[in-house]
Every structure is written in structure tokens, then in C-alpha cells.
Write a structure and sequence with these properties.
Blueprint (H helix, E strand, L loop, with lengths): L42 H12 L18 H14 L3 E2 L3 H11 L8 E2 L5 E2 L23 E6 L5 E5 L4 E4 L7 E2 L9 E6 L5 E5 L14 E4 L23 E7 L2 E6 L2 E6 L8 E4 L23 E6 L7 E5 L9 E6 L2 E4 L17 E5 L6 E6 L1 H6 L5 E7 L8 E5 L1 H6 L20 E4 L7 E4 L3 E4 L7 E4 L28 E9 L2 E8 L2 E6 L14 E2 L14 E4 L6 E6 L5 E4 L6 E5 L6 E4 L2 E8 L5 E4 L18 E3 L16 E3 L7 E4 L2 E5 L12 E5 L5 E8 L2 E7 L9 E7 L6 E3 L12 E6 L7 E5 L7 E2 L8 E4 L7 E2 L9 E6 L5 E5 L2 E5 L7 E2 L8 E6 L5 E6 L4 E5 L5
Parallel strand pairs: 3-34
Antiparallel strand pairs: 1-49, 2-58, 4-5, 5-6, 6-7, 8-9, 9-10, 11-12, 12-13, 13-14, 15-16, 16-17, 17-18, 19-20, 20-21, 21-22, 23-24, 24-25, 25-26, 27-28, 28-29, 29-30, 31-32, 32-33, 33-34, 35-36, 36-37, 37-38, 39-40, 40-41, 41-42, 43-44, 44-45, 45-46, 47-48, 48-50, 50-51, 52-53, 53-54, 54-55, ...
Length: 879
């Protein structure tokens, strides 16, 4: 992967920041921090960066392209997340399933995990209204991303999360319980209730975003009010393993699955037997095909949705296509038994490949109408404002149309949207954010989800933005800590993914799932004069913990007792849990990457945003918003190293404190940066570059102890010539040198994801290696093993993987007694002092653990999971 040559805007992986027009600050406010509230970057700046990026885009992109052509930085994040797990080649299907089985065969340590984030997380907590927070935006209580929702008429609601499994509420929302913990995949693509009341789960999130995981197939729960999913409930064989499933649709006695590997079908009556491949536009790129190892293979057979004619189930329309554009994109139907592209006759709905991207269908209960959202690759590649082609209706009720356009991005923006700035308007992320639902009682009453939630009650003649992106920018908004969001009504979190309509206690509700969890309102709810809903309720009551952490930090809590625990999250900023809290707050907005927390004072915090943007606070960012009128009262500061400005850092870039001196920090982009002012740093100018990794290279991991620094890098970072290496040197800039790691050497030619330095000896270091071994990975030098040890400062390495399952490994940590804990994509493993064999720690679901830390006294291990919050276990129990 080539390093981008300029900044672009970042999308859904991060929460946006408020418009520069929101608050006019005195010039002094610009010193060391942003000039407008709520985040490190303003909406106007992001829009300009997107506008600059559009002219360089090409219409046929693959996921490897990272030379400034892709408009969406979330897409770049997606590339990078996948690169860590696939480079230097393509991973064969079944890798995660095999790893999960092997993990289950490991002996278990003593002790069990305790979740500490299973309490409400208030994104509008009035304690944290500093300049880099999104508090008072109106989203209220949040949790991790929800990819799919289902609901029935008996008050049961089912929420499928991006990485934390499926959850059930028996009370119309709230009081949630997990129901898929026994499955080998916790990533949700689709949820659907069939006519018999069975709940169908398609695993593998289909949003092609930065942290979407593949799944293990489709499962069915016959009695969803009471049962839980099990591996035995899988439908068919292993045909859909290692795919992502966008939608499940029913018709003609079949369930249809739109997947990343084409469209498949299966009988809904006889659940055994294999799935049938109905259509794949490029079958040679499927597993086992002649081009299956091509780097573009994962993007050659993407199916987004299926529309089945309610009057004649034999009439089926497939929406197929890669969101950035490919020749196969389009709508297909059977003609004389052969799947054929529809070339005309759709009316306003495009038929050409350039304008058919991600598509979502919805039909009315009475069969009189079909609706569709269409994202256009051409719009994505050329329009700085939006990727939305439009929202459409087929008044014939047939998915073959004719279709009439009933909304475009300009019209939606004019309906009191919060997204009215050029460069960031409704549908700008339509490839990532889409849902549609029709009121079962009214074929003209429709809910549509993009970045925001829209509602029409007249079949698209007029629209209301009932769930604006946030309340910043509206005249009703104020930062008043006595109110949640001034005089505005609560809204939903941004970035919509799933929707369902159900009944509870005799009333109909619409349920929406987005990057902040689950929300509901009455189907025929109230609106204010602007068309914004007045009656959204957050259902994220703390019993549903699907928070997606990248990092965790722990320190003693001054004035509150106990510990302050912080962590960086996907699209939910940084959470902060004080020693006596009953509700978590959010002190930084956007995406949270790495977290540095002072063990002696947990309110000394550095929080990484994306691309090595860093903010620092020395009071947990407690602020009542008074900085708006008095800039000197701001308590967080932007201190990004220079590689942030030049785009020479990865989406989630490495940041670490020296183990022996917490005032010395190391950050990695193309360069290795060091600063020695600790949490008193106030400017990015205080960083010193101590080593240049070289053009085209970027750091993937850093660690420091007693002034000695280890830095891992990749470049290129994709499977087009993937290369990796390690540089070692000192914090004062001396002694830097590259370690020789030949492709055929002991350390595999895969992504180097983390170091763990022995606290007693800086020359004794462990290395965590991501991806899968050569048994699964087709690529030069993929090698074997995931954990390596050096006793000579990194000069030579020994594979100590032993019985460790072949699973992507993200980080490692040496415990105070000399044990070694390792975080993997499927949980945590541990090697006791003096032993060589690995044991499984506790019984976490199949959730990725990205970082491990210990408490200040070393007695408790903290795991930052990417889908099930933060969990702890006592170190002494592991022996």
C-alpha cells in the first residue's frame, strides 16, 4: 500500500465534528486546539478534504488502492484492517472456523472474565463538554454498532451487533440478553423473522467498513422467545462460511441470501443439505475458481439485496455490485431460466453499471409497493457532496418496476437535515449507511436510513429528517450542561444500518440500529416544527454491551477512589469510567484509537483520534462548556505529531509510553516520534523525530522501555508486494538500525502487530504477528507462527507459538510475574511463567481482543474487546 499523499475526510468510523459556523471563538482559541466545538476536525474542513479527493478517483477501485483515489477514509480504514489479517496474500475460507475449534480444545486457565462496561454509556454526559467532546449532540446512551434489527408483535426485539453477537429484549427494548455466544462468529450481517416466527441470522457484517468481520454462515432459531443460537442450528453446510451476508429474504418456500460471494438459496422447510448458488457474476473468483487467489477476488461477486415479487415469487430481482464500481454492477432477473442483467425498463432506477452500487429493497405488507435506495459508484467517485443516486418507488408492487425517484440528496438536505455543508450531505456514506422499512399498516409510510433517519407519510412526496445526524447547528442547540442538548429533542446516533417495525404493549414502534446502538420511537410519532422527532428513546441501557474498543487505559482515580478506566472506541469517542460512576461518560469524540493513561492519576489521559491525531487532558476533560466564551477554560489540547498533517500514519496508528518513564511517549507514522513532557505536552511541535522508517513505510507497532524503542513497520502494506520489518533505536535518536528479517526467515512475512517488553530486561521482547499462517494464506513468506521471542534486543527471534491456534494475533503483554498474555481475534491466551504451552483465558465469546493492559498494581488484566466492551480477570487466577 502506498502512503496517501494528502489528507482526506474521514467518514463513519469517526463521529464528525461541528461546523465552523457553530461558535465564533476569539482568535486566541485557536492556539493548540480546534476553533470550533466537539472534535479535532470541523465538518467544513472534512468537506473540503473530500472535495479535493474526488477529482483523483477512478471508477473501478479495488480494496488495495490507497493512493488517494478512494473518497472515503473509512474505506482506507477498511483496507488497513483487512491488510493486517490477509497480507501478504489471500486467506482461504474456513480459517476462523478452524481457529475457533482449536481454541476450544486448549486447556483453560483458572479465573473468569468480568465485564466492567456493562452499565449505561452517556455520550451526552454533562460533565464532559470540553472542546474535543461530542457531548450535547443528542445521542444519549450509546453502545457499539448495530448491523441488523428484527422485531415481532409480542414485544420481542432482536439486535445484531457488528462484533458482539445477537441480543434479545422481551420488553420492547432494554433488559437485553445475548443469545449467540456459542457461535464461532459474533459479527452480524442480517436478521430476519420468517412467517413461522423463526429468527434467521446471517453472520458476517456486510458494510465493507474498517472493522467488519466475516461470518460462519446462516443460523436459525426456531423458538426465538426462549432459545439461543448454537452451532447445530446452522442452515446447510459450510458453503457460506467466511462470507459476509447483507440480507436474508423469503419467498417461494426459500430463504435467499445476498452475500459477498454471490446470491444463494435454501429451502426454509428442510434445513439440512447444501445451499444452492443461484448467481455469481464472476464465478472464477469464488473459492476453488481459477482466479480465487486474485487480490480483487473478494470484490468480484458482491450481492447487496434480493427483491421477490409478492404476487409471483418466481419473479426475483437481484441487486449486485461493488460499491466503488465494477463492470458487473447492476440488477439481474431470470429470463428463460438464465440470470440476465436488466438493461432497460426500470424507469428512473438506473440500469447502468456506473450508477448501481449498494442497494436496499423494502416492500409494503399489502404488496402494492416496492421501495429501493441506490448508491451510485459514479456519484461516490465524482460528487464531493453525496454518493446517493436516490430513493425510488415501484407503484406496481413489482421489483421490475417501473420505478420513480422520490428523493435525492439535495431534497433530503433541504428537509431540515443536519448535513447541509458542501462536501458532506445526505448519502455521502450511502455505501455504508442504508436501511428501508415500510409501515405494515400503510404502504405510503416509509422510514429510510442513511447517515440520518428520514420519514415520509405520503409515499415520498415529502420527507422529514426525524433523526438528524446530531443537534449541532440547529437554533435549538446549546451547550448548557443543565440540559442534554439545549432545547433540542434527543436524536439517534448517526450512521444507520438496521431497522424493524414491531409492536409492544399494543403500540407499534420503529426500531433503528446504528453506530451507537438501538433506538426506538412510535411508528406514528410526533415531530416538531422542523420535522425532527420529539420521541426517540435510546434502548442502550447498559445491559447490551457491544462497545467496540481499540484500546484501554487504567489509572488511580484522584478524588473518586478506585480506578479510572478509559478506552478508545469505534465511532463512540473515548469512554471514561470513574471509580464511583454508575454511568460512563464520553470525554473525547470521534473514533478513539490508542489510549495513554497515567497509572498514578487516571485523569491524565492522551487519546488518539485517527491517523495519529492526539488530544491530551489532565483533568479527564471535565468541562461544563465554559470554554465557548472563555477559551482559556478549555482543558484538552491537540498535540498531534507531524505525520498526522502529512498523512504518513495508519488509520489506527501506534502510540505508547515508555515502561520506565511515563513522561516519554513514542508515536509511529512514517517517522518515529518522541516527546518527553508527558501529559503536560501542549503542542504537536513538542515531538522530535528520532528515526525515518523510509518512504512508503509506516509504523504498525511501537514499544519503549528505559529509552530503548522497538518499531515495527509495513510498506507496501497490502498484498501487492507486501513487506515488513523492525527498527530498533533509542529515544535520544541514537543507535537506530533495521533488523534483518528475510522473507524466508524465522519471522513470517506478515503484519507485525505488537511488542511486549520484559519489564526487567529491555533486550527481552516478544513480538505478536497478525494474519494466518501459510496453511491458510496464499502469499510469499506467509510462514507459520504468531508469537516470537528475542533475548538480544530484536537481533534474532525464536518462534514460541507452540500449541497456539492459528489465529490473528493483535498484541501481547508480559505480566509482573513473567507470564505472557496474548490478545487474538478470538479471545485471550496465556503462557504461565516457565512453561511453553498456551492456555485459553476464560470463556469469552468469539470476539476480537485488540489490546491488553494491567492495573497499576499489576494484579488485574484488562482486555479491550472489539464488540463486548472491556473485561477483566485477576492475574493470580491464571496460574
Amino acid at each position: 500500500m502506498s502512503v496517501p499523499t494528502r489528507r482526506r475526510r474521514w467518514f463513519t468510523v469517526c463521529a464528525l465534528t461541528a461546523s465552523a459556523a457553530l461558535v465564533a471563538l476569539p482568535p486566541a482559541a485557536a492556539s493548540g486546539r480546534g476553533t470550533s466545538p466537539f472534535g479535532a476536525r470541523t465538518l467544513a474542513q472534512l468537506a473540503k478534504e473530500r472535495e479535493r479527493s474526488v477529482g483523483a478517483m477512478s471508477p473501478h477501485l479495488s480494496a488495495d488502492d490507497d493512493d488517494g483515489n478512494e473518497a472515503d477514509e473509512i474505506a482506507e480504514g477498511a483496507d488497513q484492517y483487512a491488510e493486517a489479517r490477509t497480507s501478504p496474500g489471500v486467506v482461504a475460507p474456513g480459517a476462523y472456523g478452524a481457529a475457533w475449534r482449536d481454541l476450544g480444545h486448549l486447556r483453560s486457565t483458572g479465573g473468569g472474565w468480568r465485564t466492567i462496561t456493562d452499565l449505561p454509556y452517556d455520550s451526552d454526559d454533562p460533565r464532559y463538554r470540553d472542546i474535543d467532546s461530542n457531548s450535547s449532540g443528542g445521542s444519549g446512551n450509546v453502545t457499539g454498532r448495530m448491523a441488523a434489527i428484527a422485531a415481532d408483535d409480542d414485544g420481542y426485539v432482536y439486535a445484531g451487533s457488528a462484533g458482539g453477537g445477537v441480543w434479545r429484549s422481551r420488553t420492547g427494548g432494554g433488559h437485553w440478553r445475548p443469545i449467540s455466544d456459542r457461535l464461532p462468529a459474533q459479527s452480524t450481517g442480517a436478521l430476519a423473522l420468517d412467517g413461522a416466527g423463526r429468527l434467521w441470522l446471517g453472520t458476517g457484517e456486510a458494510t465493507t467498513n474498517a472493522d467488519a468481520y466475516l461470518g460462519s454462515g446462516v443460523y436459525v432459531l426456531t423458538h426465538p422467545h426462549h432459545g439461543t443460537f448454537s452451532a447445530r442450528s446452522r442452515v446447510g453446510g459450510d458453503e457460506l462460511e467466511s462470507t459476509s451476508i447483507h440480507e436474508l429474504r423469503f419467498g417461494g418456500g426459500k430463504v435467499w441470501a445476498a452475500t459477498s460471494e454471490g446470491v444463494w438459496s435454501h429451502s426454509t422447510q428442510r434445513l439440512s443439505g447444501p445451499w444452492k448458488l443461484e448467481f455469481a457474476p464472476n464465478p472464477d473468483f469464488l473459492p476453488g475458481g481459477s482466479q480465487a487467489e486474485d487480490p480483487d477476488a473478494p470484490y468480484k461477486n458482491i450481492a447487496n439485496d434480493i427483491a421477490i415479487d409478492p404476487k409471483d415469487p418466481s419473479k426475483v430481482v437481484l441487486a449486485v455490485g461493488w460499491r466503488s464500481g465494477d463492470d458487473y454492477n447492476g440488477f439481474y432477473t431470470r429470463v428463460n431460466g438464465v440470470w440476465t442483467r436488466i438493461s432497460s425498463g426500470l424507469g428512473d432506477l438506473p440500469a447502468d453499471a456506473e450508477n448501481v452500487g449498494n442497494v436496499t429493497f423494502a416492500r409494503s405488507a399489502d404488496g402494492s409497493r416496492y421501495y429501493a435506495i441506490d448508491q451510485s459508484p459514479e456519484q461516490l467517485n465524482t460528487n464531493p457532496d453525496s454518493g446517493l443516486e436516490g430513493i425510488y418507488v415501484s407503484k406496481s408492487g413489482s421489483p421490475t418496476g417501473p420505478w420513480t425517484k422520490i428523493a435525492d440528496y439535495k431534497g433530503l438536505a433541504a428537509d431540515n437535515s443536519a448535513l447541509t455543508s458542501p462536501g458532506y450531505m445526505p448519502g455521502v456514506q450511502a455505501w455504508y449507511n442504508q436501511f428501508l422499512a415500510v409501515d405494515p399498516a400503510d404502504a405510503q409510510h416509509v422510514y429510510a436510513g442513511l447517515e440520518e433517519v428520514y420519514e415520509t407519510k405520503d409515499g415520498g412526496g415529502s420527507w422529514s429528517t426525524v433523526g438528524p445526524y446530531w443537534n449541532f447547528g440547529f437554533s435549538c442547540w446549546s451547550i448548557d450542561p443543565a440540559k442534554q442538548t439545549g432545547d433540542c429533542n434527543p436524536t439517534t446516533h448517526s450512521d444507520q444500518h438496521g431497522v424493524a417495525i414491531g409492536r409492544s404493549h399494543g403500540k407499534s414502534f420503529v426500531y433503528v440500529g446504528n453506530d451507537g446502538g438501538v433506538y426506538k420511537r412510535p411508528v406514528n410519532g410526533a415531530q416538531d416544527a422542523s420535522g425532527h422527532a420529539t420521541d426517540w428513546t435510546s434502548l442502550n441501557d447498559g445491559t447490551i454491551d457491544t462497545l467496540q474498543y481499540y484500546s484501554v487505559g487504567i489509572g488511580r482515580d484522584p478524588g473518586h477512589g478506585g480506578l479510572a478506566v478509559t478506552g478508545g472506541l469505534q465511532d463512540n469517542g473515548q469512554s471514561v469510567l470513574r471509580g464511583d460512576d454508575k454511568v460512563m461518560g464520553s470525554d473525547f469524540g470521534g473514533d478513539g484509537g490508542d489510549t495513554l493513561t497515567d497509572p498514578a492519576n487516571g485523569c491524565n489521559i492522551a487519546q488518539e483520534y485517527v491517523y495519529l491525531a492526539v488530544q491530551v487532558t489532565q483533568n479527564c476533560a471535565v468541562n461544563d462548556g465554559s470554554w465557548v466564551t472563555d477559551p482559556s477554560k478549555a482543558t484538552s489540547y491537540s498535540v498531534a505529531p507531524p505525520d498526522n498533517a502529512t498523512s504518513e500514519a495508519r488509520f489506527i496508528a501506534p502510540l505508547a509510553a515508555d515502561m520506565k518513564n511515563g513522561d516519554v511517549w513514542v508515536a509511529g507514522g512514517r517517522h518515529i516520534w518522541v516527546q518527553s513532557h508527558g501529559y503536560a505536552i501542549r503542542s504537536g511541535k513538542e515531538w522530535t523525530g528520532v528515526h525515518d522508517l523510509g518512504a512508503g513505510r509506516t509504523a504498525t507497532a511501537v514499544a519503549a522501555s528505559g529509552g530503548k524503542i522497538y518499531a515495527a513497520w509495513c510498506g507496501p502494506c497490502n498484498n501487492q508486494g507486501f513487506a515488513r520489518g523492525i527498527a530498533v533505536g533509542n529515544a535520544d535518536g541514537t543507535g537506530w538500525h533495521d533488523i534483518s528479517l528475510p522473507v524466508d526467515g524465522t519471522v513470517p512475512n506478515r503484519y507485525l502487530s505488537g511488542f511486549a517488553v520484559d519489564p526487567k530486561n529491555a533486550d527481552h521482547v516478544f513480538l505478536a504477528v497478525n494474519g494466518f499462517s501459510r496453511h491458510w494464506t496464499e502469499g510469499p513468506g506467509a510462514g507459520v507462527g504468531h508469537v516470537f521471542e528475542s533475548t538480544d534486543g530484536g537481533t534474532t527471534w525464536k518462534d514460541i507459538s507452540a500449541n497456539l491456534p492459528d489465529v490473528p494475533t493483535n498484541s501481547a503483554l508480559v505480566t509482573a510475574d513473567g507470564g505472557l498474555a496474548v490478545a487474538t481475534d478470538l479471545g485471550v491466551v496465556y503462557r504461565a511463567p516457565g512453561r511453553t504451552a498456551w492456555e485459553r483465558v476464560g470463556s469469552l465469546p468469539a470476539v476480537a481482543v485488540l489490546q491488553l493492559k494491567t492495573s497499576p498494581d499489576g494484579g488485574t488484566l484488562y482486555a479491550a474487546t472489539h464488540g463486548r466492551g472491556i473485561a477483566t480477570v485477576k492475574v493470580r487466577s491464571l496460574r
